[in-house]
Design a protein that fits this description.
Number of domains: 1
Number of strands: 13
Number of helices: 6
Strand order of the largest sheet: 5-4-1-6-11-8-12
Structural class: alpha/beta
Strand content: 25-35%
Helix content: 25-40%
Length: 237
């Protein structure tokens, strides 16, 4: 079982925390880096090998993770010299990837069973499996529906429900074979291409704990909640 962790971003939205540290290494609970939690979770889920796609401040990640043996993993690296999007780095390491593998952002904090995502993907035959989470968005305004200049409907401060991507995917190597290594490829590009080709991705619905540490508010929340969630996130501790 192999995982690719995307850890090459600059973490612009999380500044100033990411001024000196890459986002996957910002501390949670003053004791663990996000990436350490992820690596321990992967090992506990049955993963044995991992590739870290690194770029910005990648030397710090390489120094911290090493060969991964401290978590029982064999870790390799792929260096992103220029921005390639979410899926673009995978095209540069195709010869190292198995038929089916997990792809995830390096800043995800969740108790999702990564092994279950990959197993469902491999069994489904889908080209891509997206771990999804339900989010409710509250609108702080009265929402109008208009037709030909006339108001035809009204809702006072409605709440809208969405299924959002968790930044965790099951992927098959064949799905990427049509794309050119070295060129950018975004997650959005891949999904839209699959939908256009009538080969839709599968969904892995999840309703447990999930935070995408992309903004200072989310990071502060993760730290505030970590003491209560430590046993949930680090079951092997």
């Amino acid at each position: 079982m192999h995982a690719v962790i995307l850890a090459g971003g600059k973490g612009v939205r999380l500044r100033p925390y990411t001024t000196a540290l890459p986002k996957p290494l910002v501390p949670i609970g003053d004791q663990h880096a996000i990436l350490e939690i992820v690596m321990r979770q992967l090992a506990a889920s049955g993963f044995t090998t991992c590739t870290l796609a690194i770029g910005h401040l990648g030397h710090i990640i390489r120094a911290y993770v090493g060969d991964g043996s401290q978590w029982g993993l064999r870790v390799g690296y792929a260096v992103e010299d220029s921005p390639l999007g979410t899926m673009g780095p995978l095209l540069t390491m195709m010869e190292r990837l198995p038929d089916h593998f997990l792809v995830m952002n390096g800043d995800v904090l969740t108790d999702l069973d990564y092994g279950a995502v990959l197993r469902q993907h491999a069994e489904s035959g889908a080209p891509l499996t997206i771990a999804t989470y339900s989010r409710k968005v509250s609108i702080d305004f009265g929402v109008l529906t208009t037709t030909d200049g006339m108001v035809t409907g009204f809702r006072e401060k409605p709440s809208l429900d969405y299924s959002v991507s968790m930044g965790v995917y099951g992927l098959s190597r064949d799905t990427l074979s049509r794309y050119t290594p070295g060129l950018p490829l975004g997650f959005d590009d891949l999904v839209l291409d699959l939908l256009k080709a009538d080969t839709p991705p599968a969904a892995y619905d999840f309703d447990g704990y999930w935070l995408d540490i992309g903004r200072p508010d989310d990071y502060d929340r993760a730290n505030a909640e970590f003491a209560g969630n430590r046993s949930l996130l680090l079951k092997d501790a």
